[in-house]
């Protein structure tokens, strides 16, 4: 039985990985991932074999991991954030159907929702939805239905992949949908480059968010009707009385 | 300026904390938290002062942390999972309004949603909602509206606090609401005691989940229309073709 660890390395800083993630990489012969993330960890695991595939080559990356494991190597497949949130864990199980002799162990990590929330304050304290605005693998109609449902039920909403070169106006579209049910004054926040060089956080209203330019390294937080700004932090109360 | 770290210690195992969380506790004079979680970390931080308050004494716990910091101590306020997900981060900002001389730093951790997902397989790979079934601080009508919205928009749903002594039939009620829009055959899963002694995971259908007894140490996952069972793991595909 060969072994592949599927590891969430967290937002990017070495000290935001878990001990378990570090141990798994230390125990591995090969570390495989998307080029950008392999570059983030390379210096901490000298002597390991590193292999990368570019974006949109995710299936190839999974096959590579299983083929390397087949040779008898212990393999780490690394993902930014948590491997199970828009990460590689799911695809590894799907591709793994063809490799029944390989055992998968998923090692969780800090995802951008919670890593970014910690920078902004405490926006996700209560019920929230995580929605990716990327329509590469999901029809936009489905994303739209989810945005509307989340807004109507007064969820806090955290948006992944809010923008890209081809989708420069998606955040604007999402904010317009949100404003069908949420007040334009709803407290929102953005965090870019979480726990990495150039980290930047901003708290603003939903109306202001609509006209803000974000990039693919930004995570967006849209509050619920109770979310407030406290000393420039974005805070959603959980509902304790007498505070 | 005194300092309080608000720290997510993850699901419970020492090696599922981040390096940053461990460093912050090492740098602290006092570690404060709910009794059960302080007991989990006590042995790893000898020489620290430990202080606890019981459940439902959350406001007192925050005040205690600020009062200790006021004495010049560096304080860690610890929470299980992530401090910003149904944790103490929000309340600390709210209470902190009365302590402007104290700086808060939130240190994210692995929350039960991602920790439990890693045990079950990859249920949260795509858009999901996190909903707590506890109506201690939230009206049940609001929880109900969120459950229905989440089911209707085909989100994967992760339920926190699915049960307690007083709320023994809440999971059943939630499943009945889900079945208004989700098929009774929807793949679901439960994980108890994530990363702790007695960890247990089960994959089942929504219909079966409805009649399953869970306790307050269980996290529940309800799939979307695409979620499938692969070798007894709960896997939500992200949508890659040709797999």
From TrEMBL, chains A, B:
* All residue ranges annotated as the Tetrapyrrole methylase domain in the record: 3-209
Q: Name one Pfam family in it.
A: TP_methylase
Q: Which domain of life is it from?
A: Bacteria
Pathway the protein acts in: Cofactor biosynthesis; adenosylcobalamin biosynthesis
Enzyme class per UniProt: transferase
Its Gene Ontology biological processes? cobalamin biosynthetic process; methylation
EC no. given is 2.1.1.131
| Keyword annotations from UniProtKB, A to Z | Cobalamin biosynthesis, Methyltransferase, S-adenosyl-L-methionine, Transferase
GO MF annotations, alphabetized: precorrin-3B C17-methyltransferase activity
- According to UniProt, the name of this protein is Precorrin-3B C(17)-methyltransferase
| UniProt lineage | Bacteria, Bacillati, Bacillota, Clostridia, Lachnospirales
């Amino acid at each position: 039985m060969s072994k592949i660890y599927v590891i969430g390395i967290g937002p990017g800083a070495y000290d935001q990985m878990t001990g378990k993630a570090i141990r798994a990489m230390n125990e591995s012969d090969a570390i495989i991932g998307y080029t950008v993330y392999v570059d983030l960890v390379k210096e901490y695991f000298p002597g390991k074999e590193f292999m990368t595939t570019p974006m949109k080559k995710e299936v190839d990356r999974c096959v590579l991991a299983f083929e390397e494991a087949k040779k008898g190597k212990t393999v780490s497949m690394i993902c930014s954030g948590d491997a199970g949130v828009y990460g590689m864990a799911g695809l590894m199980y799907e591709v793994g159907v063809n490799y029944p002799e390989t055992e998968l162990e998923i090692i969780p990590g800090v995802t951008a929702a919670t890593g970014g929330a910690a920078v902004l304050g405490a926006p996700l304290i209560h019920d929230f939805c995580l929605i990716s605005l990327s329509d590469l693998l999901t029809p936009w109609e489905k994303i739209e239905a989810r945005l509307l449902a989340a807004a109507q039920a007064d969820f806090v909403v955290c948006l992944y992949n809010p923008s890209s070169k081809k989708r420069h106006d998606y955040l604007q579209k999402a904010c317009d949908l949100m404003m069908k049910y949420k007040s334009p004054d709803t407290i929102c926040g953005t965090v870019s480059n979480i726990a990495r060089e150039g980290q930047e956080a901003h708290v603003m209203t939903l109306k202001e968010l609509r006209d803000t330019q974000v990039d693919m390294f930004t995570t967006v937080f849209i509050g619920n009707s109770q979310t407030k700004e406290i000393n420039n932090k974005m805070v959603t109360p959980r509902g304790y009385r007498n505070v």
